[in-house]
Every structure is written in C-alpha cells, then in structure tokens.
Amino acid sequence: MFGRRRREQARSTSESVGAAGPDNPDVVLAQTIARHFEGAEVSGSAAAIGLGGVIIDCRVDQLVPTNGQVAASLFFNISGGALGTAPIFASSSGYGTSDLEAIVEGGCAWSCSFGPVLRSALADEPEPDVDTFDVALDGRPFRAHVAALNRLMGTPGIGEPGDVIRRTREALVGDDRWLTRKVLDSGTLPLVSTATATVLSAFVMELSDHRTVEVKVNGREWVASNLDAFAGPHVGAEGTATLMRELAVLVPQGGRVARSVPFRRDSLQRTLDGFEPATAEPWRADGWQGWSAHRGALGRPLDVAEVRALEAAAGQLPPDYRAFLVDVAGSGAGPGYGLIRPAVVGDGVIPLAHAGCGVTWILRLDPDHRGEVWVDAAGADETFTQVAPTFSEWYDDWLESALRGGVWSQWDNSACATTGVLNQLITSLDERGELGPRPINLQGRIGPGGIALSLGAGYLPEGSAGDPCHPCVALASRFGLGPAIFSPGVLLQR
Ligand SMILES: [Zn+2]
Asked: How many CB atoms lie within 10 A of CB 431?
C-alpha cells in the first residue's frame, strides 16, 4: 500500500513542467553537472562536458516527496569521445527539502565523485583521489582509473566512521585496496572493448550478517561478477551498514594493433552467457527475436577440410576471420540473426549475418577491400557501406553495443517495409479520427502475423518470407506492438 501511494504521489517530470523552459528539471540537472566541468556547455537536457566530446544527457526520472523531504531519481546517459557513441546508462539519487534542492544535491554528489575519474581517464589529468593501475583482461591491456565513495550507517558510538570503513574494506579486499581490483581479477567480467573506454562500477553494502553486491559494466548489471567476485564470510561491524561504491574507467592501451588480441571461444562464450534473455526488452540486443534465433550460443568451429574448401573458393581468408572460424565458431551468436556458416556467394563475397528486412552484413574479398565488412541494405535504404575495417572489429563493435543495450544498426530503417506499413496504418487511423490520444498506441490494431515481409533480392532466395530488422522491431514496440505481429520468416525458422 505504501509503495502504491508513493507511486501516485510521484510526479512524472514531463507533466509537471514545460518542455524546455529554465525550470525544466532535466535542464536544471544538466546545468548542475556542467558546473563541475571547466568549459562545459548545456543544450537542453544535455551537458557537453569536454574531455574529447563527452555528452551527458540528463533526466530527472521521478521526484518523490517523503516525510517533508524530496527524493529525486536521476538518470544519465553518457556518450562521446573515448567512451564511444552508444550511450552508457548511469543513475543516482538526490535529497532535499524542495524539488530543486534534491536535483542539485544529487547532481552535485554524482559529479563530485565521478567527475575526477572521467577527467583522469579521458583527459589524463592526475586527480588526488583517483588511483590508476594497469591491468590485462583476456590478454588485452588496459589502464584502470578508479575512485571510491564510502558511507557508514549505523548506531552512534561505533567508533570513528573512517576507521570502521577502513577495517571493513581491508577485511573484504585485503591489501588490494580496491573492490574494482578484485572484480578485475575475478575473471568473471565480459570481454572489455579495446575500441572504447569502459565504465565499471562496483558496489558492496556490508552488514554483520548480510552482503549486497552490484557490479555494473557500462551501466549494465553484470550478475556473474556479483556472485563470484565477493564470496566469503561477512565482515561488517555489528549494528552498521558499510556502503562502498567504486567507479572506474578502463582505458584500452597500446594502440589498435597492440589491442587486437584474437577472440577466444571460452571468454566469448562467458560473455554471451552473462546476458539475461529472461529480463530482456525488445530494444535490447538480447531481448529481440534476432537473439532468440541463436540464443547466445556459438556454433562449432570449422574443421580443416571445411576451411580448405572455403579457401578454395575464397582464396586465403583474412587472418582474423580465419582464426575466428577455426578457433571460436563457424556460426551462431552474432549481429542480427546470428553468424551464417560461411560460403562464397554471388560476386565473390561471404555473407556474415542477416539483419532482417533484406539487410546483410558481408565480408568483401576483392583486392581493394579484402577483409572489410560492409552492410548491404538493399531491402532498406538501398545503401552499401563499409562498417568495419576487419571482421574482428565488426564483431567487437556489435558485442560492445549488445552489452550497452542499444539497437545496433548502420542503415536507415525509415526506408524499411515495416516502417512503411506502420506509417500507412497511422495515417489511415488519423484520417478516420481513430488514432486516439498521444502517445500513439497501436496495440490490437495489427493481429499476430499481420505483417508478412517478402524479400525482393539479395543473399536469400528471392521471394523468401523475411524477418524484420532490430530497428523495425524496436520501432513497433514503441507503438505497443510486440514481435508477434511479424509473420515468421526464413531466419527465425532456420
Ligand atoms: Zn527494418
């Protein structure tokens, strides 16, 4: 009952204030963040904080009044510069006697603890409270920049808080000093990108008889590390709760060549196993139907005879792709509906994966572009574009995007057939005055299998029943339409 009342009292910020005015909570939060970074600029809800082009998009998710206080729930999406283009989600909270005070307090606390780590990692500025050390993960070199934020809650008279926290930390992590170090050494993290910097957070709340652990990689909770990295007896002082939070940024070292360590099947499968399809959502890489086509499983590697047969048709394969096929997998988990068993087709290319909507990633074999990955978006916006210089970088980029949770696409899906169907439906409902209030909800307007895609041409037999691409599935879901509206095509039936 209490929870319910809280929710009713909570105000959605979009209804309580104007869209872009100076009183907009999102803008206030962005301005608060910007004050912590020299030369930062605010545009709407986005704070451009410098550091090579890092943008923090700010949202006040909820303002909940409780006992004369206001609790602000704050959302951040961080992207740009060395952090890469796919947004990293972070959240925090703030408290005060008014909406404004809660937002400013929360924004300030978050930037005061995280800002120095970002500056140390992305601008290479030494910061007094940030520690740096080198670490190798799956054979790839990184420099970790880490800072801690500790709090002690408990009965008075338990001693100097700093001493209690220090004793608890020492009992938990020993001489390492850092929870982060323990997480890094545990071998439970997913493969960490060598193309972009990675944000790693570790949180432990230690009681005398209970421990809560939360490890997040680029904003995504990584349950495998929660369970494994902090086993052992409870070390919290009686009657206290020690809250230990660490924020780290892992910066890849050694340049592109030094970083290009080949994939290993065990570390890749460990990463894929860390996804949680059960809790997934259609706009996440592991929550849409392309993932359910391969379920995060790697197919068996090719044997010597199969590689020889392939190279008889393709010529010598690019070394990284050949190594992947032989040592990691010949098919299975990957972009779109998963990696296809390799074969040379058409005018001498190897299709790598179908995206749906008649879009295919291919490996080029012609002399000028050999080894490059291109996307052939014949069924969507009809573009043909290079998306990665090598197979490994293409696969790495997909994996990183999957971890961050966004839709990975390199074509304009507004030209896909699905978008056209939805557009027609919305237009005709609007003309008949049946569209209803915004946001537009089309639930029940298209029955199961109501959209059947037929492939014109490309890398599947002409006239095949097609499946939708991820951007189209995500688009439909924004209008309340689940994946069942699509008639299953050849990719799901494989
Ligand atoms: Zn599409």
From this structure: 9
Which segments of 35-135 does DSSP mark as H helices, in order?
99-122
The residue with tokens 């494994």 is 228
| Preceding peptide of 439 cis, ω within 30° | yes
Gap between the terminal Cα atoms of the chain:
48
488 Cα to the center of ligand 1, angstroms: 14
Q: How many CA atoms lie within 13 A of 290 on its CB side?
A: 33
Dist. CA 237–CA 240, nearest whole Å: 6
Task: Please say whether the structural domain 260-404 has been given the CATH code 3.40.1580.10.
Answer: yes
Spatial distance between the Cα atoms of 107 and 36, rounded to a whole number of angstroms: 10
Half-sphere exposure (Cβ direction) of 419: Cα atoms closer than 13 Å: 15
Expressed in angstroms and rounded, the spacing between residue 395 Cα and the centre of ligand 1 is 20
- pLDDT tens for residues 14-48? 444 444 455 799 999 999 999 999 999 999 999 99
Ligand 1 centroid, distance to 412 Cα (angstroms): 8
Reported as a single tens digit per residue, the pLDDT across 210-225 is: 899 999 999 888 988 8
- The one-letter code for the residue type at 395 is Y
Place of tokens 């790495």: 396
**485: number of CA atoms within 13 Å, CB side?**
21
Q: Report CA(355)–ligand 1 centroid distance (Å).
A: 8
Give the distance from CA 27 to its chain's centroid.
24
311 contacts 317 by C-beta, under 8 angstroms: yes
Q: Please state, rounded to an integer, the average pLDDT across all residues of the chain.
A: 88
Domain boundaries, the chain: 2-122, 131-258, 260-404, 413-493
* Regions of the chain with pLDDT less than 50: 1-20
